[in-house]
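User: For my dataset I need records formatted as: sequence, then structure tokens, nothing else. Please produce one.
Assistant:
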Amino acid sequence: MPLDRPLTLFEEQTRHDPAGGRIVIFDEIQHLKDWEIHLKVLTDRHPNTRFIVSGSAAAALRLKSHESGAGRFTDFFLPPLTFAEFLAFRNLEDALIVTTRHAPAVRYVVHDIQRLNEEFINYLNFGGYPEAVLNESVQTDVQRFLGRDIIDKVLLRDLPSLYGIRDIQELNRLFTSIAYNSGQEISLDGLAQNSGATKTTINRYLEYLEAAFLIVRVYRVDDTGKSFQRMRNFKVYLTSPSMRSALFAPVHDGDEPMRAMAETAIFSQWLHSDLMRYIRYARWKQGRADLEVDLVGIDAARFKPLWAYEIKWSDRYAGDRSTELRGLVELAKKHADIPLPVGATTKTLTRVTEVDGVEIKHFPCALHCYQVGKNVAEGRAP
């Protein structure tokens, strides 16, 4: 059935005059062949109607929108919920967060860090999706509801049908492995050896998963802030930490994956900003030691670090163990002429420490996650 047929039936049954204006929504539009051609005809035929089309195959939608809808279509990308949106949906934002203004930035203070941490863990487990946030029955069985949507709908149906993937189980195994190890450094060589698939196939699968906005790849720089000519290693993050809970089990305070999921959550906030493409992680050799920093913001013009920080879910690094933040310290010393702001998240503490003359700011992980998501979603500097 062409897209204009439901409109004709609607007008016949309701005697609605399209000249008066209306909004028409088509969901999962990617399942209609040549939808963009149908839609282009509709927009010309019904100038007073606004058409909204949505679908989970975002990359395919965007490609066809650009090809056929120039001047007619406008694209909107909706990443998973930010932590700030999650708190707002649960009517907790005003109760937990106080806004302070330090021009030109906007900063935040937390009333009750313990309660905020509890909600942060809820966010990790089911907070990326409005249906789960607003429906308690989904929260009680995240694996059943979200897992089914992710695996059955996107991995097993949308991607194979849109991209002609033949070995669906191989793709499923790769995504499951990535989800379990979100935030870990991987390489095409390592993935190929572990899976038995070729590097070309693995790379194609990664491109599919990125196109579906299930994962994001973050690339490595050295201590100078420069990328490597041959990018053998990179990190892969889920676009929402809730996917891991949906596939495996909810994460709790004290669990081993907690830090990696906190890191994944903070990366997911950056998806709401174009600055995401300038975020890297740093790893380099210094003597016999391998040094690493979790997040490094890169100046696109000069290819120099702008800031750097480590994601921790512990207060220990804000005390006696601050000397263990060696990667941060050495990176800051390398760029002392800037100077380079560096920091490390904590579980509850806010303070400043100094190591070898380098000032390290410590701030609660959950509050930082809120601040990044809130500011980038509203178009401010994080």
